[in-house]
Each structure stands twice: as structure tokens, then as C-alpha cells.
Amino acid sequence: MTAPTRDQILDAAARVFAEHGFRGSTTRLIADAADVNEVTLFRIFGSKDALLGEAIRTRVYERDILQLPDTPGDARAELTTWATAEYQHLLTHRRSIRQGMSELVERPELCRCMAQGPRGGYTRLRVYLTRLVEMGRASKDASPLNAAAMLLGALFADAMGRDMMPDALPPAKQVPAVYVNLTLDAIGYVAKPAAARRKAAGTRVKRGA
Amino acid sequence: MTAPTRDQILDAAARVFAEHGFRGSTTRLIADAADVNEVTLFRIFGSKDALLGEAIRTRVYERDILQLPDTPGDARAELTTWATAEYQHLLTHRRSIRQGMSELVERPELCRCMAQGPRGGYTRLRVYLTRLVEMGRASKDASPLNAAAMLLGALFADAMGRDMMPDALPPAKQVPAVYVNLTLDAIGYVAKPAAARRKAAGTRVKRGA
DNA sequence: CATGAAAGCAAGCAATTACTTGCAACCAAC
DNA sequence: GTTGGTTGCAAGTAATTGCTTGCTTTCATG
Predict the structure, then answer these.
(1) DSSP letter string over B57-107?
(2) Model pLDDT for residues B46-96, shown as the tens digit of each residue
(3) Which of A38, A58, A170, B124 is 20 to 30 Å from A132 at the Cα level?
(4) All structural domains of chain B with their residue ranges
(5) Confidence of residue A206 (pLDDT cuts 50, 70, 90)
(6) Strand C within 7 A of B9 CB
(7) b vs e for B175-198, b when ≥16 Cβ sit within 10 Å of the residue's Cβ?
(8) Residues B19-42 pLDDT 10s
């Protein structure tokens, strides 16, 4: 068994899955897309389920989440960079993600690997926003937990729904910055802590949302 | 042909679709769920496609969007009520909506009816938030368009993703208020216009997000 | 060249699925 | 009771699908 063929099949399976979903990804379709003989799929992976399971796990859901700094600097810039990577992944894989979401009832075992990315992102973001509050750079009343959920939710919804109504949403290139800025405004973000705020009084009027 | 049987079948089809999606909704499954003979489905609807198409259109996607007042009063209360209705619909139909989303590539004709609800909600919310800005009750820098997108996005993502990670999101009962309040904070909402703001200086510290 | 592993090819199986057909049963209305 | 409309029942068709099997071909290695 050669690694190129195995990867080739996994890549092809993920592509077919994105368009056709679980049932619609016939072994014939996958074999054609991978440019191999159908029987090869069974020789290597044993069953269609095993093949597709591994394909979407390794090609869609398993990934590294970008790090956020332990000590926040320019939060608007840092979070926008971070959100851009997150959003890019969601946008790139939106078809597969939509297919995976539709399988939640019939294949609950998919739940864990599907939730891995969102959980990781959520945790990092929440920690970062909590630090902002602790540093006196966001309102003490703010809930980093809720704000993190809202930002990630908005990014997710945008990526999943954009194909449905592209004209009704902010331009894709602007999306990360738009939602990051709204989120930071929502938690009363300021570039400097309260003690230093009097000297930088105009900071908030310079950024529009 | 009797109307009860027709409706019975449509209801059953929608239920089966929510769990099994398009392909997985076999005519046998639907007939069993509707407690009718399989041939009846074809007598009444002609094909499985036509049946499912009508079922999800009429049982999931076609709906009335709650109105928002032309002149905003207590925006936190009004938007929370409104968002609660919106969220409830999304939560109730989340399985069907997820299935529908997964079909976007293979059945692009679904796009329009799927987008109808979100578009309507988006428009109403945007108009309402624009009025807030015009009344001097939100920041002139705010973009009602972006804020509307974020609020609706967050509600959507929450409803669609809750099954995947129920513990990582705000409690469902609190969701509408949480995201409405964050959104209003993001656009610099105040209960009264700028001219009257000095007399109600404590308004913002009373509500936590 | 010989060998073994990997993959291709062709045929086929059993199960499933949307759908059809002919007859029978049921029910409401006259 | 008769009639017409609606639905059920049973059997079946053609197509599709995951998967298997036996033989052949290809390729890398010694």
C-alpha cells in the first residue's frame, strides 16, 4: 500500500463529501475522483463508512487553532488576524461543515471531532477577552464568555450562510474585522486601561462599525 | 383526496426529513410516519422530490417574521422579544435547517425559500437599528447593517451548533437577551438621545453582558 | 529474470429504493 | 342499494449501491 494512493483517496473522498454528503458519496464517485479502481477503496479502508469517517476527520475537522497572545497588545489587530484565520477555515470548508452538521442526528459519533475546532477557538478567545477585562481594558460588566460565543457564532453563520444570500452580508474580506470590532465595542474595549484613558480620550471615535 | 391526509403526509415528511435528510427520507419511512400506504404518496404528490420540496417549504421555511415597532421604545426589551421569537424558530427547526443547508450544492433551487426568513428578519432588524441611530440613541459611527448581521448570525449559529456543544454556549433561555444586549452595546445604544443623556448617566452600568 | 505486493478489470451478488399496476376495500353521498 | 372517490394491499420493475471474487497487470526490489 502506498501513502500517495491512500492520501489521494482521502482527499478525493473529502471533496466528494463536500458536495454530496454521506449517502451521496458513492464509492464509485469517490473512486473516480481519486482516479483509482473502486475495489481499492475497500482493500485500503474496509468500508465506505470508515473511509468517509477518516476523510472528513483528517481533511476538515482536525486542525490547529491559531494562538492568541497571553498578554493582549493591540486587541483589534490581534483578534482580527486571529478571526481571519478562523473565518478562512470556515469559508474554505463550508460545504463539508454543512454536510457534517446535517449528519448530527444519524451519526452522533461525529459530534466530538466536529466540536473540537470550535471548542478550542472558543476557549482561546474567552481567555484572551478575560485578560482584557482583568487588565482594565474592557468593562468589568462584560462577559468574555458571551462575547466569545457571539463573535465565533457570527463568523460561523456568515461562512455557512453566505452562499444563500451573498448580498445581504458584509463583504467577505471585511467580515473578520467587522465582527471583531463590534465585539470589542460590545465589551467596552479601550486600547489602554482606565488609569491611562484620560490621555487618549479620542480613541473610540476613530473606528467605525 | 382529503385535506387531512395531505397535511398528515406533509407533516410526516417534514419530520422524517429533519432526521434523515433528502436521500434518507425514503418513501417507505414517510408513508409509515404518516400512517398511510406508500402508493398514496405518489397519488397525491407525484414524486418524492415534489413531496419533500413542498413539505420543507411549507413546514420549515415559510413563516411570518415578527414585526418590530416603527418607532423604537425600549430597544432592549423590544429586540429581546423579537430575537426570542426568531431564536425559537431556529431552535425548533434546527434539524431541518441543517439538512436544508447541506443540500445547497445539489439543490440550489432551495436557496430562495431558505433565504426568505433570514432576509426578512435582517431587513426588519436593520431598519430598526437605523432608526435608533437616527434618533440619536446609538452611535453615529455604528453600522446597523453589520450589527444586524452579527446578531442574527449569533442566534443562528447558537441554534445550529448547540447540539454539538451544549455546555460551551450561554444557557438557551438567556441567549436572545445576551446577544441583543451585546449588539446594542456594540452600537453604543442608550435609552435616551444624547440631549437627554446627562440626566440618566447611570443607565449603562446597570446592565451586564 | 523471478518474486511479491499493490492495484486494475470485469462480473456479479444481495439489498435497497422510487415508482407502477391491478385489484380490493372502505366510505360518504344520493 | 348504487355509485364514485379515495385509499389499501400485494406484487413487481428497473435502477442503484456497497461490496466481493477471481484473474490479470503493473511495479519495485533483490
Answers:
(1) IIIII--PPPP--SS-SSHHHHHHHHHHHHHHHHHHTHHHHHHHHHTTTT-
(2) 999 999 999 999 999 988 889 999 999 999 999 999 999 999 999 999 999
(3) A170
(4) 3-61, 75-206
(5) very low
(6) no
(7) bbbbbbbbbbbbbbbbbeeeeeee
(8) 999 999 999 999 999 999 999 999
> Residue written as cell 468574555?
A144
- Higher local confidence (pLDDT), B206 or B137: B137
Domain B75-206: top CATH class: mainly alpha
Q: Confirm whether any atom of chain D, the nucleic acid strand, is less than 7 Å from CB of A27.
A: yes
Q: Please, are residues B68 and B125 in contact by the beta-carbon 8 Å criterion?
A: yes
Q: Looking at the predicted structure, is the pLDDT value of residue B199 above 60?
A: no
* Closest by Cα among A181, A191, A148 to A80: A181
Question: B3-61 is classed in which CATH architecture?
Answer: Orthogonal Bundle (1.10)
Nucleic strand D near CB of residue A39 (< 7 Å): yes
A145-183: pLDDT as tens digits: 999 999 999 999 999 999 999 888 999 999 999 999 999
Q: List the one residue out of B69, B180, B195, B80 whose CA is nearest residue B137.
A: B195
Q: Burial of B9 by CB count in 10 Å (0-12 exposed, 13-18 middle, 19+ buried)? A: buried
Closest CA to B100 of B89, B109, B91, B88: B109
Q: How far apart are CA A78 and CA A75, in angstroms?
A: 5
pLDDT at A194: 60
Find the Å distance, CA of residue A62 to C1' of nucleotide D17: 29
The Cα A103–Cα A22 span in angstroms is 8
- What was the pLDDT predicted at B159? 97
- Helical ranges in chain A per DSSP H: 3-24, 27-34, 38-45, 48-56, 75-92, 94-102, 110-134, 144-161, 175-186
Cα separation, A119 vs A142, in Å, equals 21
Which bases in strand D are touched by protein, i.e. have an atom under 7 Å from a CB?
5-11, 16-22
Are A125 and A73 spatial neighbours (Cβ–Cβ below 8 Å)? no
Which position has the grid cell 473565518? A87
Q: Is the ipTM of this complex over 0.95?
A: no
Q: How many angstroms separate the most distant Cα atoms in chain A?
A: 72
pLDDT of residue A173: 95
Distance A37 CA to D24 C1' (A): 14
Question: Stated in angstroms, how far is A96 CA from C10 C1'?
Answer: 34
Q: pTM of the full predicted structure?
A: 0.91
**Lowest mean pLDDT: which of A15-19, A174-178, B191-195?**
B191-195
Quick check: B185 and A183 CB within 8 A?
no
